[in-house]
Amino acid sequence: MKKTISMASVFILTLALAACGESTAGNDIVEKEKTKSTIEEIKERGKLRIAVFSDKPPFGYIDENGDNQGYDILLGKRIAKDLLGDESKVEFVLTEAQSRVDVLKAGKVDITLANFTVTPERAEQVDFANPYMKVSIGVVSPKSGEITSTDQLKDKKLLVNKGTTAEAYFTKNHPEIEQVKYDQNTEAFESLKDGRGAALAHDNTLLFAWGKENPDFTIGIKEIGELDFIAPAVKKGNKELLNWLNDELEKLGKENFFHDAYEKTLKPTFGDDVKAKDIVVTGVKEK
Length: 287
Description:
Number of strands: 13
Strand order of the largest sheet: 10-9-11-8-12
Low-confidence stretches: 1-5, 28-33
Radius of gyration: 25 Å
Shape: globular
Number of helices: 10
Helix content: 40-55%
Distance between the termini: 84 Å
Structural class: alpha/beta
């Protein structure tokens, strides 16, 4: 009887050790997956996923052939080329302004490039890389009813896009002004054309481009609030990709990439009314 109990004990101990070994091995695999770098994951996937706009020309938009075009697109392709060796190895994920943080948090993209203005509130949720553009808020209105001061917006409707710095600025600094908010840029601008608001507030760089195509409107307020910077963003805490991206942006600045991209994508829209130096930042933190 004692021998039988002893053999049973040995058998149980063996099973326990084996299970422990399997558990340890399983944990090692899980741990290995956890420690796999983001860049390794991107290379294994063979695609760099970048969030961009579909309706914000000349920065990010879909052309008549259904292709992504614009300043952000040119930058995204170059980043993919330098990371994966081929600019075609990029997947552009279309997003709206209010979703630019969420797509990073949910792991749907690796980088957000959608004309993303750096703000303290956003920096609490994502990590911004070095800037590549500078921008201010502007206000566009019909020439027949030009708005040149925020005082003129009292008792009038101001059109804005959800999740933009324009929305945040007017909410904080001019709560007395009624805002009509839209998800999409195209929807907001069509509403301005239809007279559903006295004016529209947005990035002045976008307004300069839109104004060129719509001569019945004028940017009566060219700058309001502080000068802001536009930069790529990565998921909060992703230091590896952030550091790689900062090195990449600095390299591109030294190569004159940003000025070349301006000439190709922005100057044809802006003409001589806007200068590259007013928009371009060369991939380094400005003092």
